[in-house]
């Protein structure tokens, strides 16, 4: 009986102590609020660019955040060609993650539009649209502005995820075999 009474008294004392600590925590000054959740970048807060890379069928992409606040873009740029169905396939494959774009910062990606220069199935389009988030309308770049006056040839395009540097985007694209497939 004595053991049971001591255990019961210890349990009661523990409950009273926990209740007192909880009351003190409620009465104390409020703790600093957690950092606000990051919001997606507004389309008008971004500048999206596409430029020739100097390599056949490869474009360099960039997105710059012109606000004073960090925001989110999709982990991979949405790159569509003319009125063709589908978009460039991300390399490496990624989930639904976001890329954090700091205030005044720029992210880079590279996109290859053609799996092989002699591909007979290639289509030719007059423009490409690049968006930082799928909800955005995107920025349209004409083939002429991308040094392709005859049109952009496209078949099985592949794009990198956003990267902190242009060199890293180029390096990641070089790891693909040009057809959206990982080198093994």
Write down the secondary-structure element order.
Answer: HEEEEEEEEEEEEH
Structural class per helix/strand content?
alpha+beta
Strand order, main sheet: write it out: 1-2-7-12-5
Helical coverage, percent range: 10-25%
Number of helices, where a helix is a run of at least 4 consecutive DSSP H or I residues: 2
Shape: globular
Which spans of ≥5 residues are poorly predicted at pLDDT below 50?
1-35, 178-184
Kindly state the mean pLDDT as a whole number? 79
**What's the story with the biggest beta sheet?**
5 strands, mixed
End-to-end Cα distance = 71 Å
Give the percentage of residues in beta strands.
25-35%
| Secondary structure tally: strands | 12
* Rounded radius of gyration (Å): 26 Å
What does this structure look like?
The protein has 184 residues and is an alpha+beta fold. 19% of the residues lie in helices and 30% in strands. The chain has 2 helices and 12 strands. The chain has a 5-stranded mixed beta sheet, covered by helices on one side. The protein has a 3-stranded antiparallel beta sheet with strand order 4-9-10, with no helix packed on it. It has a two-stranded antiparallel ribbon with strand order 3-6. β1 and β2 form a beta hairpin. It is globular.
Keywords for this structure?
about 180 residues, alpha+beta, 3-stranded antiparallel sheet, 2 helices, 12 strands, about 20% helix, about 30% strand, disordered N terminus
């Amino acid at each position: 009986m004595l053991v049971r009474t001591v255990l019961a008294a210890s349990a009661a004392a523990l409950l009273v102590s926990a209740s007192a600590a909880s009351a003190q925590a409620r009465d104390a000054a409020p703790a600093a609020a957690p950092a606000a959740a990051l919001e997606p970048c507004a389309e008008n807060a971004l500048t999206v660019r596409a430029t020739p890379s100097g390599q056949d069928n490869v474009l360099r992409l960039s997105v710059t955040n012109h606000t004073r606040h960090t925001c989110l873009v999709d982990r991979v740029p949405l790159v569509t060609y003319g009125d063709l169905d589908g978009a460039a396939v991300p390399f490496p494959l990624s989930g639904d993650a976001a890329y954090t774009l700091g205030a005044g910062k720029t992210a880079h990606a590279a996109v290859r539009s053609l799996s092989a220069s002699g591909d007979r199935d290639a289509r030719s389009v007059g423009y490409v649209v690049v968006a930082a988030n799928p909800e955005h309308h995107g920025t349209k770049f004409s083939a002429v502005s991308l040094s392709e006056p005859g049109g952009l040839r496209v078949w099985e395009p592949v794009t990198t995820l956003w990267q902190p540097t242009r060199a890293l985007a180029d390096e990641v694209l070089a790891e693909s075999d040009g057809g959206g497939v990982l080198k093994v």
